[in-house]
């Protein structure tokens, strides 16, 4: 390890290891949930019942794996692009510990049933305070380091990191404003229709600012790094960035189509959702044209395919999403299993592929070595790809079937199917979904193994005196 | 000039803040200032202490993960669940509980659809009531008691009215009772829409004694009715009335015209007034008028008649 960066790299490694640990927890909970969908006996007790574990799954993966990886990789990218170590190295370490305590508290309290209920904002108010503190620490370090950078121009990835810092702060604080009713009980400050509107303004955009902005920061940094190819168009990345940051915040109401929310909010939300295809595909096109300079990188560098498939799923996701927002499509697929299919293409496809590839790159780079095994990384790639495809495709099929059965009427005009007739048709697809999830988890375990072995190898290299010099001689 | 912004982190961040705030102000903050985001129906009552305790449990157990609470203004949804949800129904909902996934049925109009006894049995063991259901059982709610002081603090935080007697009463209630009290008030601020298919009360069953209709009625009965009235039609004493030679049916002597049976199956409990029978005030016969066709309902009546030993 480079001496100047040694301490900060260890911090980055701490975030990566934390993210990996939370990934395993969140994925296993996810698999259990998928089994509970068809085998209710797997609801063992109150703590493990579906209703309580569902937010555990989403929060541990979104905030434990997702944000943990974002912290670590954003610090790494910021240091590289600022050409200097972090401004507050010890603060980043304190933040690491506080982050892990907050996620652990989230895990325990959600299983105990302490919840604010709003999706991705379930953690009760004391944990919210901890999360805000963690985020302020992150913001101070990232912005501070950028302010004292040794490279005048800020590269694209820093734009996305800065917008993540700003966006998540605004969203998280507003939607978590509580009416405090007890030491671990609060109610949303907003009520009814207004509560719904604030929550989905938050819910949609926190996904955007956690699963889009920082992941694009990684994509724009690590794709050129691994392939050696410069980003195709700087101008396109500027247009894509600003239209994404501007357009995103208007769209949350597409989660509330056909609800009692005033119609104009729904319609404006849908219109801006359609508009979002443009900036999203700006990045997709930029990614493809970058690789288009030299497709042989797909064979010569094992990481290229992660990024290419990742941005492909991002492209599919950002066409599927706006399509779902259309009233005529929403009425068929909203509330059905189609939606988890959509979400998991984004998380298991775009996010997981991009994040894991970035981690491979960073871990090897920090120890100035190579990945432990390219073969294991390739196995990981194919397993998570197959697992995710099984998951998403089965959910799309059964989602359309569900929606159609809910709507079907007889010649006389009465409903054709009871609710249960629709539900039981899901069972075969739910079985397949668990299979897909299990394959995905095996793939992720290959990844965890590979990362741990690389770190072990790196530490051994560090411990042995000057092996590089000996080899060179 | 334009390129300079990427060399000035503070100016850049300010621009990002402005970009983020634009949509947030128009779509989130501005609507909040408008009265149409805070409507309240005249018939809407605040949660009682027991109902709020039940709502807290509904939140705690994550029911919202599988059950929506908003009926969309689509023909099929209104037929399946009842009138579409109105903005003014959710004035007291901190937060809203509309949900995003409908693994189980929507509950926005669940209040009064089924008797308390059905819910008790169902929460304790869902598959006893609905054989292929995937809903978890909630046995721990049967034993746990509502915490009166915590509920009082919650009521005070939300500014909801309560009396000392109501708080004292909470100490005698199980969590299950509270949850059922919450579920039974869902959607009751809006008058129930009556079921689609109707016939004259003195109508004669055109399918009476028709063997194929009886066979069909038996199948429909098994799918929809035996959940409560059981396969032998004898029901469960104290909860679901027997349909075969009961001592009394809906508080009166058992004989009832075909048209009255039709009205009850089609319109559910709401039809009791029309057929002039009181029944148990807590009782809740589900309305099937939007799920079953006229012919199907007559088939069920024919099947019930065949079991009653009448021609």
Would you kindly provide a brief summary of this structure?
The complex is a heterodimer of chains A (473) and B (311). Chain A contains 18 helices and two strands. Chain A is mainly α.
Indicate the proportion of strand residues of chain B: under 5%
Specify the biggest β-sheet of chain B. none
- Helix proportion range of chain A: over 70%
CATH homologous superfamily assignment of the largest domain in chain B: Cytochrome c-like domain
Low-pLDDT segments, ≥5 res of chain A: 469-473
Element order, helices and strands of chain A? HHHHHEEHHHHHHHHHHHHH
Gross morphology of chain B is: elongated
Q: Which class do the helix and strand fractions of chain B yield?
A: mainly alpha
Descriptive overview:
The complex is a heterodimer of chains A (473) and B (311). With 473 residues, chain A is an all-alpha fold. Chain A folds into two domains: 1-155; 226-458, Cytochrome c oxidase-like, subunit I domain (Cytochrome C Oxidase, Chain A, Up-down Bundle), CATH 1.20.210. Chain A has 18 helices and two strands. Chain A has a two-stranded antiparallel ribbon with strand order 1-2. In chain A, strand 1 (178-182) and strand 2 form a beta hairpin. In chain A, helix 2 (50-82) runs antiparallel to helix 3, helix 5 packs antiparallel against helix 6 (192-211) and helix 5 packs parallel to helix 8. Residues 469-473 of chain A have low confidence and may be disordered. Chain B is mainly alpha-helical and 311 residues long. Chain B has three domains: 2-37; 49-185, Cytochrome c-like domain (Cytochrome Bc1 Complex, Chain D, domain 2, Orthogonal Bundle), CATH 1.10.760; 211-307, Cytochrome c-like domain (Cytochrome Bc1 Complex, Chain D, domain 2), CATH 1.10.760.10. Chain B has 14 helices and no strands. In chain B, helix 2 (49-60) packs across helix 7 and helix 4 (116-124) packs across helix 9. Classes of the chains: A mainly alpha (473), B mainly alpha (311).
